[in-house]
Request: fold
Amino acid sequence: MPSPRNLTGTVVVITGATAGIGAATARQLVAAGAKVALGGRRRERLDELVAELGADNAVGVVMDVRQPADNARLVAAAVAAWGRVDSVVPNAGIGMYGGILDQTDEALVEMMDTNYAGTVWTVRAALPELLATGDGGDIVIVSSVAGFRGGDDEAVYAGTKHAQVGLAGSLDRELREQGVRVTLICPAGTATEFAVGAGRVDNDPRFAEWLTADDVAHAIVTTLQQPRSLRTAIWTLWSMGQGS
Reply:
């Protein structure tokens, strides 16, 4: 039986790293021996997470995934710190719930640009460094089960997740022969601050039965630990308390 791939010394770029799934993934990766370059919009939270993980293990960059130049700065920070990038986890995303007419134009543009265009810019920034490693590395896109089916009061959000599904499938076909593995991680509802104030509330009673950020982070880390001879295209996750 193959042994898990050793992540010690590998360098992983993570966006949306200041909370929830991104922060949980950073912690689990550092525990597994990896180095992490963390991108997020909140300086105070980035500084706290870097201090927690240790400056030898983590660097933080205040950035907005909607800006191609900011994604390039994040990747450059990883290369400056450790000389390489082995994997990238485009995780940044926002959710807003309501009918198609319930949000402002500006809010919907922000969600579409963050969730889909932000994923594209992160991949484009990291890919040359992944290819330079010689074994191609990993692209692990954090999406949602909403990418396979619409849901009540989330048409635009679900559309952005469908777009990520299409992007990941096409990237897999484009990049596999160059050694790059592309994986789509698609969790169901996860108990984080995601969309709180935009259709969810703090301490939602449903959270007790939902996935946790650590559950999803475990799937991401497990994906990166696969032997290089195989790849996982799509991993959907539900808790035992959630219907599918």
